[in-house]
Each structure stands twice: as C-alpha cells, then as structure tokens.
Design goal:
single chain, alpha+beta, Helix Hairpins, 2 domains, 7 helices, 40% helix, 29% strand, disordered C terminus
Length: 304
C-alpha cells in the first residue's frame, strides 16, 4: 500500500533491484489498484452467483413437499371431525403455506433466466422486488407510494431487469435508515427525437442524498459511498443493462429546506400500448391500497 501525492491509497506491485556499484536500490512500482478491485469484484460476483444457484435449487426442492403439505391441509380443513376453531387454524396454516409457495416461486423466477427475449411486464417486476423488500420497508419505517400509469410490457429478459430495479430500490431504502418516503412511478413518455412511445420508471427517496463531488463518479465501476458494504458495481452494471435495451438512466439529487430528494429515472424504449392507469400505495402503518383503476382504490390488510 502506498499513498499518492493527493492522499489516495493505492496498491502497487513493487520490483526492487540492488545496485552494488552505487550501493542503492532501484525500485519500480506499478499501480494495480484497479486490477485488485476487479479481481475482488469477480470473486464476490462468483460467490453471489453460487448463492443464487443454491437458492434456486433449494426453492425447487421445497416445492415438492410443499405441495403435499398443502394438499394435506386442504383435506384436513374439510374433515368432519374438526370443530370450528380447529378448522380456522387449518385454514390459517393453508394460507401461510400458500405464502411460502409464492416466495419459492419468486426465488426461482429471480434466478431462472430465459434464453430468448420474452414479453416482460415491468409492473410485475417492480411488484416482485418491492415484495422482497417489504420487511425492510416496515423495519425502516418507510412509506411507499407507488403509481402505475401503464402496465409497461417490453421485450427483454426478466432476471436482468429485476437486477436493475432491485439495485435502485435497495439503494433508496439504504439511504433512509431513519425512515422516509419512497415513491415509485411508471408511465409512458414520448420520445421527442422520433415520436416513439417510451416507458419511464422513477425511483425517488427522501434519504441522505448524493453529494455533488460524488455525482460525477456515480456510474463508474468500483465507486461506492457504502465503505465496506458495497462493491461499487451495482449502478455501473445497471447502466450497462439499460444501455443494452437502448435505454437511459438519469438521476437528480435536490436539497430543500427540510429534506433531500434523490430520483433515479430509467427510460426504456418500445413500450406496449397503454392500459388503464393503476395505483398502488403502501403505507408504513401496515395498510396497503390494492392495484385498481385510479380513483377506485380499496384497502386490504397488509402482509407486513
């Protein structure tokens, strides 16, 4: 480890040769910081990929006994020997098993990528990611306000799009450790260049914000503001995925008198025709507003 003139710490590969004639040492140092960071990122990516494969295998294996248990509970709840209280508990067990089954299917969906582009409903992708983060939202006392103005189907690969929105949403949650507001918006956007219909998805938080000196490095590989908790690859990979779709990703961080708001906006081309506007709001109080046409929301119990 060495320090540069501007105070940065770098990793160098050092070669030293002793010169007998002049009784001195010739030293040549080569900066290998980027190489070491790349190797560490590769090792971490391989570990995460291995964890993903293991999670997929476990989810697949859980499905078989889960179906048998679900069938057993279905037969049990209708058994004539049960009284009303026992039948209630059997019904409760069946409901919880259905939730476990949904979680295993979600896990398989996150790691089972299709070989060819398919129609991807972005609304479902966002719902899946937010459901995985629901416990963290409650624990961090974050209010989620989500509105879909279009169902937003595009041709693509679900797993990599989940990766993009999981990264953006988890970053927003981590920026609000003391609570705040998370706002998700999705709708059509006209492309002024050629008049085509694009799709925008915005993720806004009222967290700590992004410092101006960090803004220009935000999408660079290995740049992170999370010290040892981040690899600095999330936004860089996300930008690469979006660019593969000929899309764009922008961000703004604004300071107001009493709060800071940071917004990431993803623009994807080739959206399908608009459908009825949808609205869905999740409150930190544990009550959700179901996805229904705007102006006709209904409240349902939250699963926490």
């Amino acid at each position: 480890m060495q320090k540069t003139r501007d105070g940065r710490e770098v990793i160098v590969a050092s070669r030293q040769v002793f010169k007998k004639e002049v009784a001195s040492i010739l030293e040549i140092n080569r900066d290998i910081t980027a190489q070491m960071l790349a190797e560490e990122a590769l090792r971490q990516t391989e570990r995460l990929a291995a964890m993903g494969r293991v999670a997929g295998i476990i989810a697949h294996e859980i499905n078989n006994p889960l179906e048998a248990i679900t069938n057993a509970f279905y037969l049990l709840k209708n058994h004539p020997s049960l009284d009303e209280e026992a039948r209630y508990y059997a019904q409760l067990g069946e409901t919880e098993l259905a939730r476990v089954g949904h979680i295993t299917k979600q896990t398989l969906g996150f790691y089972r990528e299709s070989q060819h582009p398919v129609n991807v409903p972005i609304a479902e992708i966002l719902d899946d990611v937010l459901q995985l983060q629901s416990r963290q939202l409650v624990m961090s006392r974050i209010t989620l306000d989500k509105k879909y103005y279009i169902d937003g189907q595009i041709r693509g690969f679900p797993v990599e799009l989940r990766q993009v929105f999981l990264n953006l949403i988890s970053n927003a949650i981590q920026a609000m450790p003391q609570g705040g507001d998370l706002r998700i918006r999705m709708g059509p956007q006209r492309n002024d260049a050629d008049g085509r219909a694009d799709l925008f998805i915005s993720v806004c938080d009222t967290g700590t914000g992004i410092k101006p000196e960090h803004a220009k490095h935000l999408f660079e590989p290995f740049f992170t503001t999370k010290s040892t908790k981040g690899t600095g690859l999330g936004l860089w990979i996300s930008k690469g995925i979006i660019q593969k779709y000929d899309g764009k990703i922008h961000f703004r961080s604004m300071n107001f008198k009493d709060r800071t708001m940071t917004s990431f906006r993803v623009i994807l081309p080739g959206v399908s025709p608009a459908v009825k506007a949808l609205e869905y709001t999740h409150h930190a109080t544990g009550v959700e507003t179901a996805r229904t046409p705007l102006g006709h929301a209904k409240h349902v119990p939250s699963f926490g």
